[in-house]
Amino acid sequence: MFSSLHVLHRWRVTIKLVPTGEAAKEIGVARATLVRWWQGKLVEPALVTPGGHARWDVEQLKRDLAKLRDADNL
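Below the sequence we write its predicted structure tokens.
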């Protein structure tokens, strides 16, 4: 099984998509926390597989979380 997925866009930019557990580890939270944020519509994965598994662009996730933190501080 692949632990990450690379998506090639027409501009030849490769985006690394990782499973929920790996994304959670990279941002320093528990997997269950990231799942809870997803279920609560605070964050959204880059891709959901036909089987319902999320794949995350960690850099985009970090940007989304930064925006949420900034909005919280208004």
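The chain has a mean pLDDT of 88.
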